[in-house]
């Protein structure tokens, strides 16, 4: 992810008069610029009021009783139905207009009159909508979790903060998951349809009991953990897979954290609560179904795209999967002739996970409070796009922002699935003084790299610490002075250390038992320089294969030949070793992702002790 996408400068920011005092910009900015430590709350969203023109609508004005000075009152446009409780929160400080059912053209014509826009899933907040805001629109609120209908990049470029309501639906979604679990196990939907058709078929619809059965919860976040609590009350044995879930949290609920493969192999029921990311897209596929018990039952109230729907139909037809209960689909609504929806052994609902009276009211209040706080200039824990950072600071930090995120992204991929991440330590080595740079941005990017590959959470400077705390990540920082370095460069290196975890690649474990990665910026490009106890020199671009091997001649040629035979282009190779003839690590950069057969051939080389493929 480029630094410009992660954090963009505020187009409304006014340059500080102190900015020109030094040729090299300092990373701890004066208090008059948005990045300042003490004034970031008010600077995140504040911008000069737009200059009114003859064609622009005038803003409503209220007077204070004390000084009678003019003060603009925010105007909020609610484009889709919002509960009265949420509207009441907004009306306490803003003028609110509800305009439901607008066409895209109507929205484009109207949006320039408002400081904030609130939508659900039915309204598309496109680049055209944001540009039509003419610089006045400052906040977009999404009443719900998903933000697929909002152009985040365009919003960031426009200086518009996007907030959502991610927590109010938790219990409703968990309850719906349990409802589908029980109704599927007892064939409630099928028996209901048969009886209404005049058929009394008691023998046909014999169900299965839940007590004593193993439920695998795939994704142990807010919803997944609530499902676990309820499943324990039903007498089920609960196991879970989530690379983030702390083991103590799972134990407190009575769940056991296991790897992905162990979870799907042991489960009688599988309840899916994973976000849809490039990593999880179609993760339940033909290969996954083959590893499951015959007769397994699957529930999905998360995202449709995590299941390969064609593969699920095949598994249902073969009997590998006995039943499925689905609330979400890859395409919504699904086609009327969908084989999956029409399958006799599938129970379906039209994305009702959040559809309770209580959840809808909770969403309304949560999004109203988030929008109101954002308009006041407060930091929002539910912000899903980036706050503004001065361009001169971003320019200097850009390669280090990328380095920090990629180190986090690599580190989390090295963690074994059943091992929850407990402690993260970030060590900055720099020739600059401790007050000469602010590490919040880099810490946020390490968090982003660790969290985003296996989560739907968007991490930025606003919500990084909150996100880490919510997920049980204890992040500590240390600064180490490096006298021989150049003070012109903000950092000599960044180290990311994960403690008390198991690694799927033993070579990344340091002598102290932690996963350790170190990187630095060389010629403006992030490089990986240390993996565990091994020194390497790897440009952090494309994809990476790490091989731990016996140090002997010919290894580079053997691996290179295997990749070449499969037309996998090698961009670089680097070998680090502890002692001659002992163990070494080979780091191989590849432009394409090798297929499973190619990776297995590399692993079959006698001198290769272990290997891992990592996406950068």
Written overview of the protein:
With 616 residues, the protein is an alpha/beta fold. The protein is 30% helix and 22% strand. The protein has a seven-stranded parallel sheet, with helices on both faces. Strand 6, helix 6 and strand 7 form a beta-alpha-beta unit. Helix 16 runs parallel beside helix 17. The longest helix has 23 residues, at 391-413.
How would you sum up this structure in a few lines?
With 616 residues, the protein is an alpha/beta fold. Helices cover 30% and strands 22% of the residues.
Keywords, separated by commas or semicolons:
616 residues; 7-stranded parallel sheet; alpha/beta; 6-stranded mixed sheet; disordered N terminus
Number of continuous helical runs: 20
What overall form do the CA principal axes indicate? Answer: globular
Radius of gyration: 27 Å
Q: What's the total count of β strands?
A: 24
Any low-confidence stretches, pLDDT <50, length ≥5?
A: 1-70
Report how far apart the termini are.
10 Å
Q: Report the structural category.
A: alpha/beta
Proportion of residues in extended strands? 15-25%
Blueprint (SSEs and pairs):
Elements: H1 3-6, H2 40-43, E1 61-63, E2 70-72, E3 75-78, H3 84-91, E4 95-98, H4 104-110, E5 116-119, H5 127-132, E6 139-142, H6 152-157, E7 161-164, H7 170-185, H8 188-196, E8 214-218, H9 222-233, E9 237-241, H10 247-253, E10 255-257, H11 260-266, E11 269-272, H12 286-290, E12 296-300, H13 309-318, E13 321-326, H14 339-342, E14 346-348, H15 357-375, H16 391-413, E15 423-430, H17 440-451, H18 464-470, E16 474-481, E17 493-499, E18 515-522, E19 525-531, E20 534-539, E21 543-550, H19 555-565, E22 570-577, E23 583-590, H20 596-603, E24 608-615
Parallel strand pairs: 3-4, 3-5, 5-6, 6-7, 8-9, 8-11, 9-10, 11-12, 12-13, 13-14, 15-16
Antiparallel strand pairs: 1-2, 15-17, 17-18, 18-19, 19-20, 21-23, 21-24, 22-23
Helix pairs in contact: 3-15, 7-9, 16-17, 17-18
């Amino acid at each position: 992810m480029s630094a410009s996408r992660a954090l963009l400068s505020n187009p409304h920011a006014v340059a500080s008069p102190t900015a020109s005092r030094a040729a090299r910009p300092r990373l701890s900015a004066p208090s008059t610029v948005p990045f300042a430590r003490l004034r970031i709350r008010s600077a995140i969203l504040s911008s000069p009021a737009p200059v009114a023109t003859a064609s622009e609508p005038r803003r409503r004005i209220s007077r204070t009783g004390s000084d009678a000075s003019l003060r603009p009152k925010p105007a909020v446009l609610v484009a889709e139905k919002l509960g009265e409780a949420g509207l009441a929160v907004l009306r306490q400080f803003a003028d609110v207009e509800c305009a439901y059912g607008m066409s895209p053209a109507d929205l484009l014509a109207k949006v320039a009159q408002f400081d904030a826009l609130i939508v659900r899933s039915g309204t598309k907040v496109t680049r055209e909508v944001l540009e039509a805001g003419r610089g006045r629109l400052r906040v977009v609120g999404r009443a719900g979790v998903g933000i697929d209908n909002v152009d985040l990049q365009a919003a960031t470029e426009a200086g518009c903060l996007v907030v959502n309501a991610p927590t109010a639906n938790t219990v409703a979604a968990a309850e719906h998951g349990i409802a589908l679990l029980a109704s599927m196990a007892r064939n409630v939907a099928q028996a209901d349809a048969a009886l209404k058709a005049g058929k009394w078929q008691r023998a046909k619809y014999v169900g299965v009991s839940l007590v004593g059965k193993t439920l695998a919860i795939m994704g142990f976040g807010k919803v997944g953990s609530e499902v676990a609590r309820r499943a324990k009350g039903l007498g089920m044995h609960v196991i879970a897979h989530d690379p983030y879930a702390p083991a103590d949290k799972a134990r407190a609920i009575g769940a056991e954290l296991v790897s992905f493969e162990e979870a799907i192999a042991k489960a009688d029921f599988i309840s899916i609560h994973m976000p849809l990311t490039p990593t999880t897209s179609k993760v339940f596929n033909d290969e996954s179904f083959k590893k499951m018990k015959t007769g397994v039952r699957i529930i999905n109230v998360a995202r449709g795209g995590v299941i390969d729907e064609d593969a699920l139909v095949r598994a249902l037809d073969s009997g590998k999967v006995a039943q499925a209960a689905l609330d979400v689909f890859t395409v919504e609504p699904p086609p009327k002739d969908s084989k999956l929806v029409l399958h006799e052994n599938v129970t379906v609902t039209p994305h009702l996970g959040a559809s309770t009276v209580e959840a809808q009211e909770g969403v309304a209040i949560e999004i109203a409070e988030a929008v109101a706080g954002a308009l006041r200039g407060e930091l929002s824990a539910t912000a899903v796009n980036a706050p503004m950072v001065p361009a001169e600071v971003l320019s200097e930090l850009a390669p280090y922002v990328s380095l920090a995120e990629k180190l986090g992204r690599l580190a989390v991929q090295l963690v074994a699935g059943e091992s929850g991440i407990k402690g993260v330590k970030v060590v900055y080595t720099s020739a600059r003084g401790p007050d000469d740079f602010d590490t919040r941005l880099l810490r946020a990017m390490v968090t982003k790299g660790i969290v985003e590959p296996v989560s739907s959470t968007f991490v930025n400077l606003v919500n990084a610490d909150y996100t880490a705390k919510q997920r049980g990540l204890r992040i500590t920082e240390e600064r180490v002075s490096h006298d021989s370095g150049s003070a012109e460069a903000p950092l000599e290196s960044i180290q990311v250390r994960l403690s008390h975890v198991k690694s799927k690649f033993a070579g990344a474990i340091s002598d102290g038992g932690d996963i350790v990665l170190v990187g630095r910026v060389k010629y403006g490009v992030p490089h990986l320089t240390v993996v565990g106890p091994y020194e390497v020199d790897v440009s952090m671009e494309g994809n990476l294969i790490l091989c731990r091997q016996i140090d002997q001649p010919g290894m580079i040629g053997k691996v290179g030949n295997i990749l070449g035979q499969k037309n996998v282009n090698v961009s670089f190779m680097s070998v680090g070793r502890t002692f001659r003839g002992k163990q070494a690590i080979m780091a191989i950069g590849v432009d394409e992702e090798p297929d499973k057969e190619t990776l297995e051939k590399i692993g079959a080389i006698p001198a290769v002790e272990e290997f891992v493929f990592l996406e950068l």
